[in-house]
Amino acid sequence: MSKEQLAKVDAMLRRPRPENPPTVEQLRAGFKALMDTMIVPDDIHTARTTLGDRPALHITPDSTSDSTPAGTSAGTSAGTPDNGTRPGTILYFHGGGFVFGSPETALSLTAHLVSKTGLDSYSVDYRLAPEHPFPAGLDDNLSAYRALLDSGLAPSAIAFAGDSAGGGYAVTTALAARDAGLPLPAAIVAFSPGLDATRTGESMTAKEGIDPIFTREAVLHTGAMYLAGQDPEQPLLSPALFADLTGFPPLLIQAGANELLLDDSTRLAARARDAGVDVVLDITADAPHVFQSYAGGTLDEADRALDRAALFLSQHVPAP
Which of 263-289 are b and which e, b meaning 16 or more Cβ less than 10 Å from the residue's Cβ? Predict the structure, then answer.
């Protein structure tokens, strides 16, 4: 049954490709339409808020009251519970090639993590390229982390997580936090992360045609919008090649074996291992990019992968 599910998802993702590169507006609309079809568990609560300087979506288990740290806002609310009673928090960075996506398009992922762990999550609506190329989005994510710390939440109670471009941000935001003299979070979870702006991984060629979502040309097209002519050979753009991960927190990297960006994950895991980091590289056979989005009954591998991610988070971040 599982192989049948994988084949069905693969076929669904192999849509006819336009002859010309889609516009930014078309990319954003198409991605939203796809992610609107994903299953979101109903045992969570969402509230719009702000974190740092940007809008964010606060996702909590239904059994937990929605409370907002100081330095953030949710409508007129800005209350902070006693730190001794606050559960850990997942600071989430959505995917979308740095060009499209939002906290809402990532809700199937954040909601399942919240449902499975009992932790709450803040999903950051960071600025997008090409209107705001590197490092605008990274600055927004760092500001969001700083706001959580300023609220009194201990770094040991915060995990970073993200998918695709957001999985890359989960790593680079930690690098930027370290550069800024901030403490690192307790753990990092990255789903199919984008970690190499040079696009030099062997999988960029080897998985061409096998990946049902991306082509090399498409990845280069959106990547150029984010780079805006800047040198990709730097740690905050290509951490899989250039980052010093010494002192990083435990790291879980999940990827599908069929994806163009697979070597982004494998090479970062190798760098983490060589730096003495506690790292788990979790690759699912025959699975596409961010296959975890299909949790909730569509794809058994997605639910299993998120179960493993939830276990990892529960081992490193305090639950309610």
Answer: bbbbbbbebbeeeebebebbebebbbb
